[in-house]
Specification:
The complex is a heterodimer. Chain A has two domains: 22-131 and 229-296, no CATH class; 137-217, no CATH class. Helices cover 70% and strands 0% of the residues of chain A. Chain A has helices at 17-21, 24-36, 42-57, 59-63, 65-81, 88-104, 109-135, 143-151, 156-161, 167-178, 195-220, 230-245, 249-261, 268-286, 289-296. The radius of gyration of chain A is 21 Å and the shape is globular. Chain B is built from four helices and four strands, in the order ααββααββ. The longest helix of chain B has 21 residues, at 22-42.
Chain lengths: 297, 156
C-alpha cells in the first residue's frame, strides 16, 4: 500500500500547527528566506519578491508548481546573467526551486521533496569537502583562515575578540598583503599575528571541514544505515555555528528550509529545532554577539 | 518514530517512479564538475562557478589584480582601472579566458579612444598573490600576459 502523502494536509488546531504544516513549512521558510535576503538584480529581485510574498499569504500560490517553476527560471537566469560571479547559494537556491516544482507536479510531493533535499544537501556538502580537503592548495594547512581573518573585514570581530588582534595590527597586516604587491622586501604578515589568531584559524579550519564531512556523509548514507536524526543535528549544528561568523545568512536559511523538508513529520522536536535554528540565524544576522559579550564583560 | 527513508523505500517497493528528486541533484553535479574543469583549464576563481569551493582557498579573485597597458606610437603607458571598467575587470579576474581578456581590452580601448587616437595595442597583465605556508609572505606571480591588437597590421 502506498504511503500516505501529506502534501495537502490542512492545519487542524493551534497545538498541532507544525504537525499539520507538512512540507509547506519548508516551502514557506524558503520564501521567507527570499524575502529576508532578496536575490539578484532588480529584474530578478522584483518578481521573486512579489512571488515570495504572494506565496506566503496565499496557499494556492504556495502550492502551485507554476510558482516554483517561475522562481526556478528567475534563479537560473540570475546565475546565467551574472556568470561567473554568483555565489554557491545562488545555484543551490535555483536547484531547490526546481526540486519544489518537480515535487509539487508529481503524485508524492513530500517524499520527492524530502529526497531532493537530502541529495542536494549531501552532494553540495560533499563538493565543499572535496574542495577543502583535496582540491584547495591552502585550506588544510590553515593558510586560508589565517588570510581570511586578517584580510576580510567581515571577519574583523572574531579576529579581534577571539584572535586577540588589534584593529591597528589587522590594518597593518592587510597592508602587507594587499598594498605594494610587487615589493618583495616586506615584513611577513605573520609577524603581526597573535598565537590566538592562529589557534582560531586552526580550529575554524578543522571544525568547518569535519562538520561539512559529517553533513555530507549523514545525508548521503543509504537508507539501510540507521542514523536517526543525527543528520538533522549535524546540519543544524553547522548552521547555528557557521552563520554566527559567516555573513551569508541567506545560505543558512536555505539549508534549514531544505533540512526541515527532509525531516519527517513524526520527528516533531527536530522540526521545531529547525524553526528555532532559522530564527537563530536571523539573530546572528542582526545581533552583534561580540559586542553584546563585551558589554557583559 | 517513522523515518522518511523507510517511506521512500516502501514507495519504491510499490513501483513508484522516483526520478523527480534526481534531476536537481544531477544538475548540481554537472555544474560542479564543470566548475572543477574550468578551474583547472581556465583558472576560474574556485569560489565561483557553482562548485561549492567558497571558503576553501585564499587563491580566489580577491587576490588577483590586473595591470593595464596601452601602446600608442610605439610607446607603452600603464593606465589605471576606472570605476566604469571595475565590473568587467572583476569578471576577468574571476575567469580569465581569452574572450574575457579581449572584452576587457576592447572596453579599455573604447574608454581611452579620445585620449589616445593612435592606440594600436592593449596589453593586460593578470597577477595573483600566493601566501607563504609559514609566515604568510605574499609571493606574486603572473597568470596572464594578454595582448589585444586593435589594428590588423599591428601584429601580436
Amino acid at each position: 500500500m502506498p504511503v500516505t502523502d501529506t502534501a495537502t494536509s490542512e492545519p487542524t488546531s493551534a497545538s498541532s500547527w507544525l504537525d499539520a504544516q507538512g512540507i509547506w513549512i519548508a516551502l514557506r521558510l524558503t520564501l521567507l528566506g527570499v524575502l529576508l535576503a532578496p536575490i539578484g538584480e532588480w529584474s530578478v529581485r522584483a518578481p521573486a519578491l512579489l512571488l515570495a510574498g504572494a506565496g506566503l499569504i496565499h496557499a494556492g500560490v504556495l502550492r502551485s508548481p507554476v510558482t516554483w517553476l517561475t522562481l526556478a527560471l528567475l534563479g537560473g537566469w540570475r546565475v546565467v546573467a551574472d556568470w561567473p560571479m554568483s555565489d554557491n547559494h545562488a545555484y543551490l537556491l535555483a536547484y531547490w526551486f526546481l526540486a519544489a516544482m518537480l515535487a509539487l507536479s508529481g503524485p508524492l510531493p513530500r517524499v520527492d521533496l524530502a529526497r531532493a533535499a537530502r541529495l542536494l544537501i549531501g552532494i553540495s556538502f560533499a563538493f565543499a569537502v572535496l574542495w577543502k580537503s583535496v582540491l584547495s592548495v591552502d585550506y588544510v594547512d590553515g593558510r586560508f583562515f589565517r588570510h581570511l581573518l586578517i584580510t576580510d573585514d567581515r571577519f574583523e570581530e572574531p579576529a579581534i575578540h577571539l584572535g586577540g588582534m588589534t584593529s591597528a595590527d589587522l590594518e597593518a597586516a592587510r597592508a602587507l598583503i594587499e598594498t605594494n604587491r610587487h615589493v618583495v622586501d616586506k615584513p611577513a604578515p605573520a609577524t603581526l599575528e597573535t598565537p590566538a589568531l592562529r589557534t582560531v584559524a586552526s580550529f575554524a579550519t578543522w571544525f568547518t571541514l569535519l562538520m561539512e564531512l559529517a553533513v555530507a556523509v549523514l545525508f548521503l548514507l543509504p537508507a539501510q544505515f540507521r542514523t536517526g536524526r543525527l543528520r538533522d543535528f549535524a546540519l543544524m549544528g553547522f548552521c547555528a555555528t557557521t552563520y554566527m561568523i559567516a555573513p551569508v545568512p541567506g545560505y543558512g536559511w536555505l539549508l534549514l528550509a531544505m533540512g526541515i523538508a527532509q525531516c519527517p513529520e513524526a520527528a516533531r522536536p527536530a522540526r521545531w529545532a529547525y524553526l528555532a535554528c532559522f530564527g537563530l540565524v536571523l539573530l546572528h544576522d542582526h545581533v552583534p554577539w561580540f559586542g553584546v559579550a563585551s558589554w557583559f564583560q | 518514530m517513522k523515518d522518511d527513508s523507510r517511506l521512500d523505500d516502501r514507495n519504491e517497493a510499490n513501483g513508484r517512479l522516483r526520478w523527480r528528486p534526481l534531476i536537481p541533484a544531477m544538475l548540481l553535479c554537472v555544474v560542479a564538475i564543470n566548475q572543477i574543469r574550468l578551474v583547472w583549464e581556465h583558472d576560474l576563481d574556485p569560489w565561483k562557478g557553482g562548485g561549492f569551493g567558497m571558503f576553501s582557498t585564499a587563491a580566489g579573485g580577491r587576490v588577483r589584480h590586473t595591470h593595464l597597458f596601452l601602446e600608442t606610437n610605439g610607446e607603452e603607458v600603464e593606465v589605471a582601472l576606472t570605476d566604469d571598467l571595475a565590473d568587467t575587470d572583476q569578471r576577468t579576474r574571476a575567469l580569465p579566458t581569452e574572450a574575457s581578456l579581449d572584452r576587457l581590452a576592447r572596453e579599455l580601448a573604447e574608454e581611452h579612444a579620445a585620449e589616445y587616437p593612435d592606440l594600436s595595442k592593449v596589453r593586460i597583465e593578470l597577477w595573483r598573490i600566493r601566501l607563504d605556508r609559514v609566515d604568510l609572505s605574499p609571493r606574486i606571480d603572473r597568470m596572464r600576459n594578454h595582448t589585444y591588437a586593435l589594428q590588423p597590421d599591428a601584429g601580436d
